[in-house]
Amino acid sequence: MTYVLKSKNKSLELSKPIIMGILNATPDSFSDGGQFNTYETACQHADEMIAHGAQIIDIGGESTRPGAPDVSLEEELARVIPVIEHVSKKDVWISIDTSKPEVMKQAVEAGAHLINDVRALQEPGALEVAASLNVPVCLMHMQGTPRTMQTAPKYQDVIEDIAVFFEQRIKACIDAGIKREHIILDPGFGFGKTLEHNLTILKNQKAFHRFDLPVLIGLSRKSMFKHLLNRDVEERLAGSLAGAMISAQKGAHIIRVHDVAETVDVLTVVDVCQE
Ligand code: 7PM
Predict the structure, then answer these.
(1) Nearest C-alpha neighbor of 161 from the set 124, 200, 123, 117
(2) Of these residues, 105, 193, 222, 236, which one is catalytic?
(3) Mean pLDDT score of the chain, rounded to an integer?
(4) Which atom of ligand 1 is nearest to the CA of 118?
(5) Which of 256, 258, 259 is the best mutation target for the ligand 1 pocket, counting ligand atoms within 8 Å of the beta carbon and taking the most?
(6) Catalytic: 169?
Protein backbone atom coordinates (compact mmCIF):
# COMPACT_ATOMS: atom_id res chain seq x y z
CA MET A 1 0.00 0.00 0.00
CA THR A 2 1.63 3.24 -1.10
CA TYR A 3 0.36 6.43 0.48
CA VAL A 4 0.53 9.73 -1.35
CA LEU A 5 0.16 12.90 0.72
CA LYS A 6 -1.41 15.83 -1.11
CA SER A 7 -1.30 19.47 -0.10
CA LYS A 8 -1.65 22.66 -2.17
CA ASN A 9 -1.03 20.99 -5.54
CA LYS A 10 2.08 19.24 -4.22
CA SER A 11 2.26 15.53 -3.57
CA LEU A 12 4.61 13.37 -1.58
CA GLU A 13 4.99 9.66 -2.32
CA LEU A 14 5.53 7.51 0.75
CA SER A 15 6.58 4.33 -1.08
CA LYS A 16 9.82 4.41 0.91
CA PRO A 17 10.57 6.23 4.13
CA ILE A 18 11.26 9.94 3.75
CA ILE A 19 13.05 12.34 6.05
CA MET A 20 11.55 15.23 7.96
CA GLY A 21 14.36 17.55 9.10
CA ILE A 22 13.88 19.30 12.44
CA LEU A 23 14.22 23.08 12.41
CA ASN A 24 13.92 24.56 15.88
CA ALA A 25 13.04 28.23 15.66
CA THR A 26 13.34 28.44 19.46
CA PRO A 27 16.07 30.09 21.52
CA ASP A 28 15.98 27.30 24.14
CA SER A 29 15.99 24.10 22.10
CA PHE A 30 17.55 21.33 24.14
CA SER A 31 19.68 19.87 21.42
CA ASP A 32 20.75 22.86 19.39
CA GLY A 33 21.35 25.01 22.44
CA GLY A 34 19.88 28.11 20.88
CA GLN A 35 22.42 27.96 18.07
CA PHE A 36 19.75 28.13 15.42
CA ASN A 37 17.50 30.68 17.03
CA THR A 38 18.18 33.56 14.76
CA TYR A 39 16.39 33.95 11.48
CA GLU A 40 19.59 33.86 9.46
CA THR A 41 20.91 30.69 11.01
CA ALA A 42 17.52 28.98 10.86
CA CYS A 43 17.33 29.66 7.14
CA GLN A 44 20.87 28.36 6.61
CA HIS A 45 20.06 25.24 8.61
CA ALA A 46 16.93 24.66 6.49
CA ASP A 47 18.90 25.08 3.25
CA GLU A 48 21.49 22.61 4.48
CA MET A 49 18.88 19.98 5.40
CA ILE A 50 17.23 20.40 1.99
CA ALA A 51 20.62 19.96 0.25
CA HIS A 52 21.17 16.79 2.29
CA GLY A 53 17.87 15.27 1.17
CA ALA A 54 15.18 16.21 3.67
CA GLN A 55 11.79 16.13 1.94
CA ILE A 56 9.93 17.90 4.75
CA ILE A 57 11.23 20.72 6.98
CA ASP A 58 9.47 20.76 10.35
CA ILE A 59 9.49 24.30 11.71
CA GLY A 60 8.69 24.76 15.39
CA GLY A 61 8.62 27.90 17.54
CA GLU A 62 7.32 26.40 20.78
CA SER A 63 9.55 24.26 22.96
CA THR A 64 7.89 21.11 24.25
CA ARG A 65 10.80 20.41 26.61
CA PRO A 66 9.44 19.35 30.00
CA GLY A 67 9.09 22.49 32.12
CA ALA A 68 9.67 24.89 29.23
CA PRO A 69 7.80 28.20 29.54
CA ASP A 70 4.68 28.72 27.44
CA VAL A 71 5.28 30.79 24.34
CA SER A 72 2.86 33.60 23.46
CA LEU A 73 1.06 33.62 20.13
CA GLU A 74 2.95 36.74 19.03
CA GLU A 75 6.33 35.24 19.96
CA GLU A 76 5.60 31.95 18.20
CA LEU A 77 4.46 33.73 15.01
CA ALA A 78 7.54 35.99 15.06
CA ARG A 79 9.78 32.93 15.29
CA VAL A 80 8.22 30.78 12.58
CA ILE A 81 6.57 32.93 9.88
CA PRO A 82 9.74 34.56 8.45
CA VAL A 83 11.43 31.16 8.30
CA ILE A 84 8.41 29.61 6.53
CA GLU A 85 8.50 32.44 4.00
CA HIS A 86 12.16 31.68 3.30
CA VAL A 87 11.74 27.91 3.01
CA SER A 88 8.63 28.25 0.83
CA LYS A 89 10.88 29.48 -2.00
CA LYS A 90 12.41 25.99 -2.14
CA ASP A 91 11.02 22.76 -3.58
CA VAL A 92 10.35 21.05 -0.26
CA TRP A 93 7.38 20.40 2.00
CA ILE A 94 7.03 22.60 5.06
CA SER A 95 5.56 21.30 8.30
CA ILE A 96 4.47 23.64 11.07
CA ASP A 97 5.04 22.19 14.54
CA THR A 98 2.40 23.95 16.63
CA SER A 99 -0.72 23.42 18.74
CA LYS A 100 -2.12 26.93 18.28
CA PRO A 101 -4.91 27.31 15.69
CA GLU A 102 -3.86 30.86 14.80
CA VAL A 103 -0.27 29.71 14.14
CA MET A 104 -1.61 26.86 11.97
CA LYS A 105 -3.64 29.34 9.94
CA GLN A 106 -0.90 31.94 9.43
CA ALA A 107 1.74 29.27 8.79
CA VAL A 108 -0.34 27.60 6.07
CA GLU A 109 -1.07 31.01 4.54
CA ALA A 110 2.70 31.69 4.55
CA GLY A 111 3.44 28.40 2.77
CA ALA A 112 3.27 25.44 5.18
CA HIS A 113 1.92 22.19 3.71
CA LEU A 114 1.42 20.10 6.83
CA ILE A 115 0.39 20.62 10.46
CA ASN A 116 2.43 18.69 13.04
CA ASP A 117 0.69 18.92 16.40
CA VAL A 118 2.12 17.16 19.46
CA ARG A 119 -1.30 17.80 21.07
CA ALA A 120 -3.11 16.04 18.21
CA LEU A 121 -5.51 18.98 17.56
CA GLN A 122 -6.92 18.89 21.09
CA GLU A 123 -6.54 22.63 21.79
CA PRO A 124 -9.79 24.61 21.46
CA GLY A 125 -10.46 25.47 17.83
CA ALA A 126 -7.58 23.40 16.42
CA LEU A 127 -9.72 20.71 14.75
CA GLU A 128 -11.93 23.28 13.04
CA VAL A 129 -9.01 25.37 11.80
CA ALA A 130 -7.09 22.32 10.55
CA ALA A 131 -10.20 21.12 8.69
CA SER A 132 -10.70 24.51 7.05
CA LEU A 133 -7.05 24.67 5.94
CA ASN A 134 -7.40 21.36 4.06
CA VAL A 135 -3.78 20.21 4.58
CA PRO A 136 -2.37 16.97 6.04
CA VAL A 137 -2.08 16.73 9.84
CA CYS A 138 0.19 14.64 12.05
CA LEU A 139 -1.55 13.43 15.20
CA MET A 140 1.01 12.65 17.92
CA HIS A 141 0.27 10.69 21.07
CA MET A 142 1.29 12.26 24.37
CA GLN A 143 0.34 11.14 27.86
CA GLY A 144 -0.10 14.18 30.12
CA THR A 145 1.28 17.61 29.25
CA PRO A 146 4.86 18.64 28.45
CA ARG A 147 5.16 19.92 32.01
CA THR A 148 4.08 16.69 33.71
CA MET A 149 4.44 13.91 31.16
CA GLN A 150 7.71 12.39 32.38
CA THR A 151 6.73 12.29 36.07
CA ALA A 152 5.21 8.81 36.19
CA PRO A 153 4.05 7.54 32.80
CA LYS A 154 1.67 4.61 33.20
CA TYR A 155 -0.18 2.38 30.74
CA GLN A 156 -2.25 -0.77 30.88
CA ASP A 157 -0.76 -1.75 27.54
CA VAL A 158 1.28 0.98 25.90
CA ILE A 159 0.57 -0.15 22.32
CA GLU A 160 -3.16 -0.69 22.79
CA ASP A 161 -3.59 2.50 24.85
CA ILE A 162 -1.95 4.53 22.06
CA ALA A 163 -4.10 2.73 19.47
CA VAL A 164 -7.27 3.70 21.38
CA PHE A 165 -6.07 7.31 21.42
CA PHE A 166 -5.45 7.18 17.64
CA GLU A 167 -8.90 5.73 17.05
CA GLN A 168 -10.53 8.55 19.06
CA ARG A 169 -8.50 11.31 17.40
CA ILE A 170 -9.05 9.91 13.88
CA LYS A 171 -12.80 9.94 14.57
CA ALA A 172 -12.65 13.50 15.96
CA CYS A 173 -10.76 14.62 12.83
CA ILE A 174 -13.17 12.96 10.41
CA ASP A 175 -16.17 14.35 12.32
CA ALA A 176 -14.62 17.83 12.05
CA GLY A 177 -14.27 17.44 8.28
CA ILE A 178 -10.59 16.48 7.97
CA LYS A 179 -10.06 14.02 5.12
CA ARG A 180 -8.89 10.56 6.12
CA GLU A 181 -6.13 10.76 3.47
CA HIS A 182 -4.80 13.82 5.29
CA ILE A 183 -4.09 11.99 8.57
CA ILE A 184 -0.63 10.83 9.74
CA LEU A 185 -0.10 8.99 13.05
CA ASP A 186 2.84 9.31 15.45
CA PRO A 187 3.24 7.33 18.70
CA GLY A 188 5.21 10.22 20.26
CA PHE A 189 8.46 8.74 21.58
CA GLY A 190 9.41 10.34 24.89
CA PHE A 191 6.08 12.10 25.41
CA GLY A 192 4.88 10.49 28.64
CA LYS A 193 6.88 7.28 28.17
CA THR A 194 9.54 5.46 30.16
CA LEU A 195 12.51 3.82 28.42
CA GLU A 196 10.63 0.53 28.55
CA HIS A 197 7.54 2.08 26.95
CA ASN A 198 9.69 3.64 24.21
CA LEU A 199 11.41 0.31 23.46
CA THR A 200 8.06 -1.51 23.33
CA ILE A 201 6.83 1.05 20.79
CA LEU A 202 10.04 0.84 18.76
CA LYS A 203 9.72 -2.94 18.53
CA ASN A 204 5.96 -3.04 17.94
CA GLN A 205 5.42 0.01 15.72
CA LYS A 206 3.85 -2.17 13.00
CA ALA A 207 0.80 -2.44 15.27
CA PHE A 208 -0.12 1.08 14.15
CA HIS A 209 -0.35 0.00 10.52
CA ARG A 210 -3.81 -1.39 11.40
CA PHE A 211 -5.27 2.08 10.71
CA ASP A 212 -4.04 2.09 7.10
CA LEU A 213 -2.52 5.52 7.60
CA PRO A 214 1.09 6.70 7.29
CA VAL A 215 3.20 6.50 10.46
CA LEU A 216 5.73 9.16 11.49
CA ILE A 217 8.53 8.26 13.89
CA GLY A 218 10.54 10.78 15.90
CA LEU A 219 13.41 9.32 17.93
CA SER A 220 16.25 11.64 17.05
CA ARG A 221 18.55 12.48 20.00
CA LYS A 222 15.77 11.69 22.47
CA SER A 223 16.38 10.96 26.14
CA MET A 224 15.65 7.25 25.61
CA PHE A 225 19.25 7.14 24.35
CA LYS A 226 20.41 8.85 27.50
CA HIS A 227 18.72 6.16 29.57
CA LEU A 228 19.65 3.22 27.36
CA LEU A 229 23.20 4.27 26.42
CA ASN A 230 24.08 6.87 29.06
CA ARG A 231 24.78 9.44 26.35
CA ASP A 232 24.48 13.21 26.51
CA VAL A 233 22.47 14.84 23.74
CA GLU A 234 25.47 15.48 21.49
CA GLU A 235 26.47 11.80 21.73
CA ARG A 236 23.20 10.25 20.55
CA LEU A 237 23.83 10.03 16.79
CA ALA A 238 24.60 6.30 16.62
CA GLY A 239 21.59 5.42 18.76
CA SER A 240 19.36 7.70 16.69
CA LEU A 241 20.59 6.15 13.42
CA ALA A 242 19.96 2.64 14.75
CA GLY A 243 16.43 3.73 15.71
CA ALA A 244 15.88 5.21 12.25
CA MET A 245 17.09 1.99 10.63
CA ILE A 246 14.78 -0.18 12.72
CA SER A 247 11.85 2.12 12.02
CA ALA A 248 12.56 2.05 8.27
CA GLN A 249 12.74 -1.74 8.30
CA LYS A 250 9.45 -1.90 10.17
CA GLY A 251 7.76 0.22 7.53
CA ALA A 252 7.68 3.75 9.01
CA HIS A 253 6.74 6.31 6.37
CA ILE A 254 8.26 9.53 7.71
CA ILE A 255 11.30 9.76 10.00
CA ARG A 256 11.79 13.02 11.90
CA VAL A 257 15.49 13.73 12.50
CA HIS A 258 18.14 16.34 13.32
CA ASP A 259 20.94 14.60 11.39
CA VAL A 260 19.63 14.53 7.84
CA ALA A 261 22.76 13.58 5.85
CA GLU A 262 23.59 10.62 8.11
CA THR A 263 19.99 9.35 8.13
CA VAL A 264 19.77 9.59 4.32
CA ASP A 265 22.74 7.21 4.12
CA VAL A 266 21.09 4.77 6.52
CA LEU A 267 17.84 4.82 4.55
CA THR A 268 19.71 4.26 1.29
CA VAL A 269 21.37 1.14 2.70
CA VAL A 270 18.06 -0.12 4.08
CA ASP A 271 16.35 0.51 0.74
CA VAL A 272 18.82 -1.52 -1.34
CA CYS A 273 18.40 -4.44 1.07
CA GLN A 274 14.59 -4.51 1.17
CA GLU A 275 13.20 -7.93 0.24
C1 7PM B 1 12.64 19.00 24.09
C2 7PM B 1 11.95 17.82 24.29
C3 7PM B 1 12.78 19.54 22.84
C4 7PM B 1 11.40 17.17 23.22
C5 7PM B 1 12.25 18.88 21.78
C6 7PM B 1 11.56 17.71 21.98
C7 7PM B 1 8.22 15.06 18.10
C8 7PM B 1 7.56 16.14 17.53
C9 7PM B 1 8.95 16.84 19.02
C10 7PM B 1 7.89 13.74 17.67
C11 7PM B 1 6.32 14.76 16.18
C12 7PM B 1 12.11 16.53 19.94
C13 7PM B 1 11.00 16.95 20.85
N14 7PM B 1 9.10 15.52 19.01
N15 7PM B 1 6.62 16.00 16.58
N16 7PM B 1 8.02 17.25 18.12
N17 7PM B 1 6.93 13.66 16.71
N18 7PM B 1 5.39 14.59 15.24
O19 7PM B 1 12.93 15.69 20.41
O20 7PM B 1 8.40 12.71 18.13
O21 7PM B 1 12.27 17.03 18.83
S22 7PM B 1 9.79 17.93 20.04
Answers:
(1) 200
(2) 222
(3) 93
(4) 15
(5) 256
(6) no
**Which residue, by CA, sits nearest to atom 12 of ligand 1?**
222
Q: Provide the 3-class DSSP secondary structure of residue 219.
A: coil
Name the CATH topology of 16-266. TIM Barrel (3.20.20)
Lowest mean pLDDT among 151-160, 192-201, 240-249: 151-160
Active site includes 222?
A: yes
Instruction: Looking at the CA of residue 216, tell me the nearest atom of ligand 1.
Output: 18
Give the lowest-confidence range in 12-16, 37-41, 117-121: 37-41
DSSP string, 133-184: HT--EEEE--SS-TTTTTS----SSHHHHHHHHHHHHHHHHHHHT--GGGEE
How would residue 71 be classed by pLDDT, with cut points 50, 70 and 90?
A: confident
Task: Find the residues whose C-beta lies inside 6 A of ligand 1.
Answer: 22, 30, 63-65, 97, 116, 118, 138, 140, 186, 188-189, 216, 218, 222, 256
Helix 195-204, helix 237-249: angle, nearest 10 = 40
What are the domain boundaries of the chain? 16-266
The CA distances from residue 119 to 111, 227, 250, in Å, are 22, 25, 25
Q: What global pTM score does this model have?
A: 0.94
CA of 275 to the centre of ligand 1 (A): 31
